[in-house]
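Subject: design request, 335 residues
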């Protein structure tokens, strides 16, 4: 078994989520941790057993012990860091989204396509066992033809500093929406061809809308919406409903179950013709960072395309950018 040397760039919330799930694995050795805040970089190094830490990632790119770089910084820095990593022959696991606008998102995707090393963009739901199970059930026709998708991901943001920083970087539709746009296209097996939406600034100091709703329609005729609100006044809500011609699938995360959380996530199947409800308990790790890392190592070792592919990543990103434009202009946009 090859042991991969890893450098983490960005030791904030999502960076530490990566680190905590991979540092103890047999095929991983954390070599360096990097953050603009030296104390955070130092703390991450101490927790993961990394030999080195610092505020500048570039000197570490010359270290032959580093095989993989995890980019967990703000979106605006993804492209320049990616370029530096690829120039030094490093494999990359990069957090989403791939850019702050269409132009640098396209540049990111183009860099990945011409790279000699492997790059995986972190669409974590592709590696979540509950979403994988839902996709399989839908593809097998358990609920007939998928016609309607309801997705809500609202955060009651008591950690105001973190979410204000995120909102300065990009909107919820771009940051969080790319996940669920990808899910919609993955589950339907077709592209989103039309978007519209609404948004507002509950916090007037916010750079971007902190509450947004995107409506969409796919080539297959499935319609749906994604709602995302990041504000202290918004109540936390997580809704995932997939409605077909023969029934409905609903996902309730273990943490949101009123009881029996020990059983894992709850997948509820409702059959329209019989009125029957079927309960499926599915143990699942919501952010399975190691499963994601394993996908990257499979790409490296077996020259596979990754999951999602860069084409699928770019497609979801383009839809998110179109949704931002639709919300800003009040128009229906056809892709």
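Subject: RE: design request

Done. Sequence follows.
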């Amino acid at each position: 078994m090859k042991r991969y040397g890893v450098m983490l760039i960005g030791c904030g919330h999502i960076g530490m989520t990566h680190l905590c799930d991979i540092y103890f694995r047999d095929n991983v050795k954390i070599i360096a941790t990097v953050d603009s805040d030296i104390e955070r970089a130092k703390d991450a190094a101490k927790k993961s057993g990394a030999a080195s830490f610092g505020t500048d990632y570039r000197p570490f790119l010359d270290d032959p012990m580093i095989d993989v770089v995890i980019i967990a910084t703000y979106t605006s820095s993804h492209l320049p860091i990616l370029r530096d990593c690829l120039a030094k022959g490093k494999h990359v696991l990069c957090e989403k989204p791939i850019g702050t606008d269409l132009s640098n998102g396209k540049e990111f995707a183009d860099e990945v396509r011409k790279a000699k090393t492997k790059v995986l963009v972190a669409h974590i739901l592709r590696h979540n066992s509950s979403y994988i199970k839902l996709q399989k059930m839908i593809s097998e026709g358990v609920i007939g033809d998928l016609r309607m998708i309801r997705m809500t991901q609202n955060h009651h943001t008591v950690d105001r500093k973190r979410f204000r920083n995120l909102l300065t970087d990009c909107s919820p539709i771009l940051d969080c929406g790319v996940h669920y746009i990808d899910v919609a296209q993955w589950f339907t097996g077709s592209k989103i061809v039309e978007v519209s939406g609404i948004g507002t600034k509950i916090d007037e100091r916010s750079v971007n809308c902190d509450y947004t709703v995107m409506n969409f329609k796919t080539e297959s005729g499935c319609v749906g919406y994604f709602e995302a609100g990041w504000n202290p006044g918004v109540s936390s809500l997580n809704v995932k409903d997939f409605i077909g011609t023969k029934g409905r699938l609903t996902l309730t995360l273990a943490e949101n179950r009123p009881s029996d959380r020990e059983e894992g996530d709850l997948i509820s199947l409702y059959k329209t013709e019989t009125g029957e409800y079927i309960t499926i308990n599915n143990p699942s790790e919501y952010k399975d960072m190691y499963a994601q890392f394993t996908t990257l190592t499979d790409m490296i070792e077996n020259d596979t395309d990754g999951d999602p592919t860069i084409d699928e990543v770019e497609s979801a990103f383009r839809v998110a950018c179109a949704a931002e434009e639709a919300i800003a202009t009040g128009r229906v946009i056809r892709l």
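The mean pLDDT is 96.
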